Please model this.
Amino acid sequence: MASPSFAIPARPTRRFRRDGVEYEGEVLFVCQPEDSPERDLEGLVAAVLADGPYRYGDFLDLPMALYLARDEETGDVFRISVRDGTVRLHVLPATDPAGLRAFYDRLVDRSSAGWRVERQIDR
Model:
């Protein structure tokens, strides 16, 4: 199977408001297990993050798993969510493909499933 591309053709822009941060535009990589679907995607993502080289935090009051992660090797910061049987990698303004690729490779290494990746862009 061909290796997926994590090219980022457009980046979200960040605006600071009085009550927080807002992003315009979105680039999202949706990673979906094939063949033998992973039953515990939240556990898989948590294990990848815990094994490093990540510094991360989760958003506890949400109905789904959502992490903000920094890859200490590549310096990339991105969000990771688990939703509807998929792992979603959310691009932030300074995210580079290397950090996304590294996370994906670690996800694949810890899983017995094949994976399909779809890039979604919302401008």
